[in-house]
Design brief:
alpha+beta, Butyryl-CoA Dehydrogenase, subunit A, domain 3, six-stranded mixed sheet, four-stranded mixed sheet, 18 helices
């Protein structure tokens, strides 16, 4: 049972009893709680999507470790250029429908490469343990939650220099394993996972060696607590409002490790501080390639919503400024996707077998597409009109006494009913004038690292000296 159906995934959550809190209250049943509804539905619908006949030849692959059929997006270790290309295609397609693809295969792949490096440098035997963990995922079909980002505290100080350390670290080494303590941030969809996978998030010094730790554990291991921020969508059922966020997206969690024991067989890094930087480097290559495709999908979603809004308003693409704004969204989508494909075409194979996309292309492309999202949200408002922020609510529409007034007053194009117009405008409202808007901005600006980190990688990799040499040759300046 390496590929779960949505229903099987929901049932599998009942096998675990994680310590999860939402709005200050302990959640007893992750699978059914209304504040986790979108999270569970998002993951479950992703499993069902993989099994659709039109999708499964791309979404499913054969595990080289177990021979089982497994989901490409969530648990495949990416092993050739085709993996990178198909992943980019799927990421764009899925993100254009539900914002987040849940691409945990990236996280498993960069960890695979880092652990391989640790063994090669230090003569350790972590890689075999990690392979066993991956095999268990491929057999069970279980989901992981990715725990990478530390709180960092005073960012001018190293982890070991913090007056009150909160970053995850080893606090005790004992026979058979270690005890860890600290916090990880930004655990996307965390309560809907079966296991947590922990990695370091930045370069470390020898003084920070206790912070160089990586492991995997079941989500309900004693001492692991998730404090989850509710998803941006409504907790109530809706049929018109919030058409995207009422069904998809999910919680973000602050994950606490309160003196958690990690058995030796689950430990993949233990003090090898000199290798911690590798994770960030590989992440900047492989995950940001996905993020280019993901952001392209968001542009596709904006373009579709904008065109539909223009249509229900009776204007369509006939008006030049509307046509120009939607064309800009189209071009940005193609440019971001092109960078994702270009990075895949220019990929290089890591000694572990993982293929790493061209980091110069991924970081440049991602930085460029990120800068457009605010303008595209502005375009959505401009094209759809002020009703996005002022139209009556779904409850008003459902009141028979009020509907007759709304129906007459808010009729748009004769090709659509008033209800259809309101549904289209509610999608724009969900995207551009809601809590979901903030989530989209956060995904665009900070997911996969901030814009500043894109610039750091490009400055490090771009061969500027070569271009200066060419300029000198053209200018007849002696070198």
């Amino acid at each position: 049972m390496a590929v779960l159906t949505g229903a099987e995934y929901r049932e599998s959550l009942k096998e675990f009893s994680p310590e999860v809190y939402v709005r200050g209250e302990r959640i007893e049943d992750v699978a059914t709680h209304p504040l986790l509804r979108q999270t569970v539905n998002h993951v479950a619908s992703g499993f069902d999507l993989m099994l659709e006949p039109a999708m499964r030849d791309r979404t499913l692959v054969r595990s080289p470790l177990t021979g089982d059929e497994i989901p490409r997006i969530t648990m495949h270790i990416q092993q050739d250029k085709e993996d990178l290309t198909v992943k980019a295609e799927l990421t764009r397609e899925i993100s254009s429908q539900r914002i987040c693809t849940g691409c945990m295969s990236n996280m498993l792949s960069v960890t695979w490469a880092m652990i391989h490096d640790i063994d090669a440098t230090h003569g350790t035997d972590y890689f075999g343990r990690y392979k066993n963990f991956i095999k268990s995922l491929h057999k069970s079909g279980h989901m992981i939650a990715w725990c990478m980002m530390d709180p960092k505290g005073d960012r001018s100080l190293a982890p070991s220099q913090q007056p009150e350390p909160t970053d995850l670290r080893i606090v005790e080494r004992k026979p058979g394993g270690v005890v860890v303590r600290g916090v990880k941030l930004h655990t996307t969809l965390g309560p809907g996972a079966h296991h947590v996978v922990v990695v370091p998030c930045r370069a470390l010094s020898e003084e920070d060696r206790d912070y160089a730790v990586s492991f995997a554990l079941p989500i309900d291991t004693k001492g692991i607590k998730m404090i989850a921020r509710p998803s941006p969508g409504p907790s109530r059922d809706t049929s018109m409002e919030s058409p995207l966020s009422s069904r998809f997206l999910g919680v973000e969690a602050l994950t606490v490790f309160d003196d958690v024991f990690v058995p030796e067989e689950n430990l993949f890094m233990c003090g090898e501080w000199d290798q911690a930087v590798k994770l960030s480097l590989y992440f900047s290559s492989l995950h940001r390639q996905s993020k280019c495709a993901c952001s392209a999908g968001h542009c596709d979603l904006f373009a579709g919503a904008a065109a539909l809004a223009a249509d229900v308003n009776g204007l369509g693409m006939k008006v030049s400024h509307i046509r120009d704004k939607i064309t800009e969204m189209m071009m940005t989508a193609e440019a971001g996707f092109g960078c994702s494909l270009g990075a895949a075409a220019n990929a290089r194979q890591h000694p572990s077998g993982v293929w790493m996309p061209d980091a110069l292309i991924t970081n440049s492309g991602l930085h460029a597409i990120r800068s457009t999202v605010g303008r595209h949200l502005e375009h959505l408002h401009d094209i759809a009109g002020g009703l996005v922020a002022t139209m009556p609510t779904e409850a008003d529409w459902n009141n028979p006494e009020l509907r007759k007034y709304i129906d007459k007053a808010l009729r748009g194009s004769a090709e659509y009913t008033t209800e259809e117009r309101l549904r289209a405008l509610n999608l724009v409202q969900d995207l551009a004038a809601s809590r979901t808007t903030g989530t989209i901005l956060a995904f665009t600006v900070n997911a996969a690292g901030s814009p500043a980190t894109n610039q750091v990688v490009v400055r490090r990799l771009y061969d500027l000296e070569k271009r200066i040499r060419y300029a000198k040759e053209i200018s007849s300046i002696e070198m």
